[in-house]
């Protein structure tokens, strides 16, 4: 080979050499290039460099540097397909189940609560808007608004993410946060007190809401707003123009509360006056003869004593109850024993559901005779055909619930289902989570700040009781029908498993234990899946791609530099 | 095509409504298709979205697919068209992509310099440099060196005349060399 880099020699340009390497030149042109590179070292070097560059490009592109994202691994399951007739039946039964749930349980409760003074036309408005018990949320409205806006923004960004560049997405997020911050309300007039002993003195007036935490909280002065208290011993002897929301050991209201009293505590004693309604979850509730409630009293207490005056209805669930005062509306009670004393007067209807008839003194003034209904303790032997029909409907509702969950979270559902087979870990974690979470959530609810977290946790925990049965059902289905590789396969196996589990749970006595075991097991499996998701994931090792040999076959009938 | 054999049997079963076959087909081709999109599109999220959309298109178009043709070639053509449409719709292409390829001045490299530049380059370095290229250059290189598409197919996908595919590829290589040189300079500067 000799160098011929003289001035008269015409070298092929780079594009010609590239087309030659790429086998895109006409036969004649390729032959010319071949002849030239036999005598030109420079062009031969460039030709080889281009060839090496092609190989480098191919090698770097086909290397498996990233595993298939989890989002894509199950994508094919989401492809549209026609619903089979069975899902239509299941859906119909589920709708029936929801209707039955509403008419059988929710609507009567709603009516009772409405009669108890809560008002509202439906359950949602009752809970969210009308339910004065939730007025405590108003103090956290900024936080709730923030969470709501951020959630909506998150969903929005998720929906339009494909149209956003990363920088643009960040800009949108920060702009949204800035916008939210600019709309944030100015500092309110709320007052926060936290000490061993918190006292609002008699001559002291607080304009706005009061948030107080302490071992002893005494409100002797005036609060022109709502009062939120978490403490041990609490007394309100002053004047509160708004509501009193309290979580404590004992609460005594000897002063005047113009709004409502909502409380979760051990002992509630009212010797003063409450302008609106009282809702109480307690061990004992006493409305002293001198005490007065302007509207209704709703009580879930072990021991209830109504000696004072009640403007409207009394709705109460208790172990033992005594009515000695005046009730301006209806009396609706359920529990262990009820005594209506001589001094009592009830202006509306009176009903009692209990193990034994109520003890009604002859001197008691009742607008209508007390309606008594014996409390029915149902046993497994009493089950009629209707019971089993409803079991079928509920099983269908469960399957629908499972269908939605697995469709929405296919990968997570599969992971949780796989964890069911890890019996020891699932049961151990299940016991811990099933019992510890509600306790922790209730403790969190005691503090005003933790209320949101506590209630959210309780809600999620309650939902997981049902999800747990779906997951264990799916695992049972897989044991019977074999492992599913697709989402719809998993749904089918879940259907079979849930039907079997629900059938087992219908068995007298044994069914209850089976249900508990399934729930604990399933909650453990779900918790394990969440735990594993929170662990850092190590990227799988990238298999080395063998480097291709650099001696590529060139176009037929051509040579490179005479080689 | 990279390590894939023709799945004629699977295609027949998918057409007959066999969901298991659809799952198998997806599992077989999704990784390669994701890699294609990952190389051709600017972000990982784009690549994930595009992969899903390509398979949704595939499901719709599979009934019309001529089984005498190469399935993988057809699939890459669908993918290339989809990715290029995506980039065009978003106007995400670099300004230089709008230049007329016929007027591009191309200065031939010094052969020994080019040898040195590509010597011992890792795949990771090339991929990093690839991500800095304009959309057209990146698409052209991916179509040619990942999917092994012909010049005719590349011309068809990019909407250029067939004789200029070589120019597009060469220009893309020049851009890539420039990016590799810059990366190398940065790396050297960073170690000082």
- Total strands of chain B: 0
Helix content of chain A: 40-55%
Q: Which descriptor suits the 3D outline of chain A?
A: elongated
- Structural class computed from helices and strand pairing of chain A: alpha/beta
What fraction of the residues of chain B are assigned to beta strands by DSSP? Answer: under 5%
- Tell me the distance between the termini of chain B: 42 Å
How much is the average pLDDT of chain A?
Answer: 76
Mean pLDDT of chain B: 81
Structure report:
The complex is a heterodimer of chains A (563) and B (192). Helices cover 46% and strands 21% of the residues of chain A. By secondary structure, chain A is an alpha/beta fold. The model of chain A is unreliable at 1-5, 79-84, 119-145, 181-188 and 536-563 (pLDDT under 50). Chain B contains nine helices and no strands. Chain B has helices at residues 8-15, 19-40, 44-61, 71-90, 111-118, 123-130, 135-145, 151-158, 165-191. Chains A and B meet through helix 1, helix 3 and helix 4 of A and helix 2, helix 3, helix 5, helix 6 and helix 7 of B.
């Amino acid at each position: 080979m000799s160098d011929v880099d003289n001035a008269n020699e015409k070298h092929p340009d780079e594009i010609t050499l590239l087309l030659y390497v790429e086998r895109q030149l006409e036969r004649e042109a390729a032959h010319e290039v071949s002849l030239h590179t036999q005598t030109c070292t420079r062009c031969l070097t460039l030709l080889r460099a281009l060839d090496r560059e092609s190989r480098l490009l191919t090698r770097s592109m086909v290397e498996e540097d990233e595993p298939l994202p989890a989002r894509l691994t199950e994508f094919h399951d989401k492809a549209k397909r026609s619903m089979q007739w069975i899902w239509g039946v299941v859906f119909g039964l589920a709708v029936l189940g929801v209707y039955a749930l509403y008419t059988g349980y929710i609507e009567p409760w709603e009516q009772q609560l409405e009669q108890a003074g809560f008002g509202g036309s439906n359950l949602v408005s009752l809970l969210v808007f009308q339910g004065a018990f939730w007025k405590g949320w108003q103090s956290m409205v900024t936080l709730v608004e923030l969470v709501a806006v951020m959630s909506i923004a998150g969903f929005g960004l998720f929906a339009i993410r494909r149209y956003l560049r990363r920088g643009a997405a960040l800009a949108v997020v920060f702009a949204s946060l800035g916008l939210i911050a600019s709309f944030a309300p100015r500092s309110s007039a709320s007052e926060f007190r936290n000490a061993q002993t918190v006292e609002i003195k008699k001559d002291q007036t607080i304009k706005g809401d009061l948030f107080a935490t302490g071992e002893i909280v005494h409100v002797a002065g005036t609060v022109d707003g709502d009062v939120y208290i978490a403490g041990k011993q609490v007394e309100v002897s002053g004047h509160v123009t708004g509501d009193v929301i309290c979580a404590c050991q004992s609460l005594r209201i000897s002063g005047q509360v113009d709004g409502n009293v909502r409380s979760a505590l051990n002992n509630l004693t009212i010797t003063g006056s409450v302008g609106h309604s009282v809702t109480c979850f307690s061990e004992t509730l006493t409305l002293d003869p001198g005490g007065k409630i302007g509207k209704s009293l709703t009580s879930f207490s072990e021991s209830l004593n109504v000696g004072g005056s009640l403007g409207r209805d009394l709705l109460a669930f208790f172990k033992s109850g005594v009515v000695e005062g005046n009730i301006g509306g209806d009396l609706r009670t359920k529990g262990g024993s009820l005594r209506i004393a001589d001094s009592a007067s009830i202006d509306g209807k009176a009903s009692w559901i209990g193990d034994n008839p109520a003890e009604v003194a002859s001197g008691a003034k009742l607008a209508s005779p007390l309606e008594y209904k014996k409390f029915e303790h149902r046993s497994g032997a009493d089950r009629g055909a209707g019971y089993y029909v409803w079991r079928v409907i509920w099983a269908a509702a469960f399957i629908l619930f499972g269908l939605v969950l697995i469709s929405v979270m296919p990968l997570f559902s599969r992971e949780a289902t796989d964890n069911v087979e890890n019996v020891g870990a699932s049961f151990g974690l299940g016991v811990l989570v099933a019992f510890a979470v509600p306790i922790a959530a209730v403790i969190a609810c005691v503090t005003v700040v933790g209320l949101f977290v506590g209630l959210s946790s309780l809600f999620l925990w309650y939902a997981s009781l049902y999800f747990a049965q779906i997951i264990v059902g799916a695992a049972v289905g897989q044991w019977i029908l074999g492992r599913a590789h697709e989402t719809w396969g998993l749904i089918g196996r879940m259907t079979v498993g849930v039907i079997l589990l629900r059938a087992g749970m219908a068995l007298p006595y044994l069914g209850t234990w089976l249900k508990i075991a399934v729930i604990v097991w399933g909650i453990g499996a779900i918790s394990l899946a969440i735990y594993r998701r929170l662990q850092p994931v190590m990227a799988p090792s990238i298999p080395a791609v063998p480097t291709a040999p650099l001696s590529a076959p060139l176009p037929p009938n051509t040579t490179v530099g005479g080689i | 095509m990279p390590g894939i054999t023709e799945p004629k049997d699977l295609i027949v079963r998918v057409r007959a409504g066999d969901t298991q076959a659809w799952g198998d087909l997806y599992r077989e081709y999704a990784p390669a298709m994701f890699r294609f999109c990952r190389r051709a599109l600017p972000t990982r999220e784009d690549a994930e979205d595009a992969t899903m959309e390509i398979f949704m298109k595939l499901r719709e178009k599979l009934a019309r697919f001529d089984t005498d043709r190469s399935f993988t070639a057809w699939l890459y053509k669908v993918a290339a068209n989809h990715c290029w449409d995506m980039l065009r719709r978003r106007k995400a292409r670099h300004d230089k992509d709008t230049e007329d390829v016929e007027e591009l001045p191309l200065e031939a490299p010094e052969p020994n310099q080019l040898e040195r530049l590509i010597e011992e380059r890792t795949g990771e370095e090339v991929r990093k440099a690839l991500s800095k290229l304009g959309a057209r250059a990146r698409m052209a290189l991916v179509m040619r060196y990942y999917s092994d598409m012909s010049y005719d197919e590349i011309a068809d996908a990019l909407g250029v005349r067939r004789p200029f595919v070589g120019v597009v590829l060469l220009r893309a290589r020049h851009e890539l060399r420039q990016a590799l040189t810059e990366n190398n300079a940065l790396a050297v500067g960073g170690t000082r």
